[in-house]
Description:
Helices cover 49% and strands 13% of the residues. It is an alpha/beta fold. The protein folds into two domains: 8-162, NAD(P)-binding Rossmann-like Domain (Rossmann fold); 169-286, N-(1-d-carboxylethyl)-l-norvaline Dehydrogenase, domain 2 (Orthogonal Bundle), CATH 1.10.1040.10.
Amino acid sequence: MDTSTSKRIGMIGLGLMGTAMTERLLAHGWRVLVWNRTREKAAPLVARGAEWCDNPLAACDRVIISLYTSDVVEQVVEQMQAGLRAGQIVLDTTTGEPAQSAALGARLAARGVRYLDAPISGSSEQTRRGEATVIVGGDRGAFEACNDLWPVLGQKVFHVGPCGSAAKMKLVTNLVLGLNRAALAEGLVFAEAIGVAPAAALEVLMGSMAYSRTMDAKGPKMIQGDFTVQARLSQHFKDVRLILEAAAAAGQELPLSETHRRLLEQAEAADWGGLDNIAVIKVIRALQRKPAS
């Protein structure tokens, strides 16, 4: 890669994850050209050294995409397709639909553009601290061409196969992660209901075989009732729907995920979807009934 452009990169999408990745890149000396559907969201990052660009695909050899769904990714790529050219690498960090990711990769490959589906496993805060995991699918050569980038985006990186493979693996990780979070919420509510202080329960859980890393990031927030957003509940609800759709297509029932979906639906109905994903504890806490006399 031309050394004059090797530390220039485009960023399309400045939500929680796109913003966190941009901050990481800027902190590591990268020149980041940013675009977002609502331009005003770019202002804080431009103030920190990022540059606004109307079409990062036209300006950069490597471009990261971080958007809400695969449908939105396709719309934005279509909008900016005049900037596509052979030799580019597009890294799509969206938690998307696997078949759509694979199909987009095939369409871009026909134009000589190498596409990597590269979703991030971790919250925006973990990403900002460099503690996330990057899961990558796509051409091995394109993956290796980004070896200078992976340590900035995450603490661990896994290449898991061709285009679409990472999107599948991200759904697997989000299934387990979401259920870990829901189980922790239910455990803390149960502890409180039977007279065990939630903070004491969390301390024991973290020192027991029940431990998961979810407890580090989300346990204190649940106890403090801190719903400041690291990852929105509505975003995970979208992911759970993708998980269940993929399972249905494979003929597999997922009973725990179906229960989780119903909890998240109740959270959305209560207008808690914009809160941090720990808001599932609010739903579980609301499921109270009088003890049997």
